[in-house]
Amino acid sequence: MAPLSPTTDEELTRRAQAGEIEALGLLLARHQAPMRAVALSLLGNGPDAEDAVQDAALTALRRIGDVRDPAAVGAWLRAIVRNASRMRLRATRETPGLDCLDHLRLPDHGSSHPERIVEQHAMRDWIWDAMEELPKQLRLALMLRHFSPVTAYQEIADVCEVPVGTVRSRLSQARAKLAEVLLATSTQAHDDAFTVTEDSRQEALTTLEGAARGNLPGDIAELWPAEAELLGTLSTPGERTHPFRAMRKSLDDGVRQQLRHVVASRDITIWEMDVTIGGRVAPTWPTLTWLMVRQNRKVQTLRVIFPRPQRGSVGAVTAANDQATT
């Protein structure tokens, strides 16, 4: 009996483009060594090279549908690594590096072409399931860096109350672990990430509506137990304050929030809000972010994160003064 011929790159690519996650996992595993060789040739032996390979693999998840010559997918993957490596060499400031993940936000209004590809191929569910496998500290750093407005290393360090060096380390570990989990889970069934996010969006809208009325519906109130703690600049040092009080106070001060974007995992929730005062966009803090840590769906802590003002702007001076008096 003649031995079976190995599956070609062309066949695996076409299967991946048709939505077969296992085929894409096999492709990435097959080409991992040559992809790493490209990164090493440009960046040398070190963490930057490994990060470039991991970023490129994650980018390939989203863009596999762009491959025009399936037989040449190896060259396509190496080109992605080359571009990722050169971007690292040219980088003069810190920007989120997981190009693939930056585009996996669920759209609030309509869908763009890349997001339709993700939906069709079930890549989004695969990636979010893999993220759920990360330790909470690593997942939190990754979610802030790539799915929220809190992207600067110093901002993440402030939120997580750790040094910047720890943030860098956690992000590096998270990227490596995520790539590892993705390859290991390519043949498994994956939960529906859309349902988790949509449930969180509905919760956010109901919470804001309840705060405006002065009371939360019973099912929402149960998610905010009395021991839920407010952290950050809105909290009172040494005092355990229920978040609902601060929500009511901001409403009494004329501050209104409108939901802009939601990112949710099982135990970490991020709600991004647009802020208005008296019907006008807030001049100092036009947006803010709710970061909730949960256990069994119930909120343990809420940290309200305000964007850092740009240095040298009039708003920066006003913001600094406002923060100093908070």
Structural features, described:
The chain has 326 residues and is of the alpha+beta class. The protein folds into three domains: 1-94 and 114-121, RNA polymerase sigma factor, region 2, helix turn helix motif (Rna Polymerase Sigma Factor, Chain: A); 122-191, Arc Repressor Mutant, subunit A; 193-324, Nuclear Transport Factor 2, Chain: A, CATH 3.10.450. Helices cover 54% and strands 13% of the residues. The protein is built from 15 helices and six strands. The protein has helices at 9-17, 21-30, 32-43, 47-63, 73-90, 99-102, 113-121, 123-132, 136-147, 153-160, 164-184, 193-213, 218-221, 243-252, 314-324, and strands spanning 229-231, 255-264, 268-277, 280-281, 287-295, 298-305. Strands 1, 2, 3, 4, 5 and 6 form a six-stranded mixed sheet that branches. β5 (287-295) and β6 form a beta hairpin.
Labels describing this entry:
single chain, 326 residues, alpha+beta, Rna Polymerase Sigma Factor, Chain: A, Nuclear Transport Factor 2, Chain: A, six-stranded mixed β-sheet, elongated
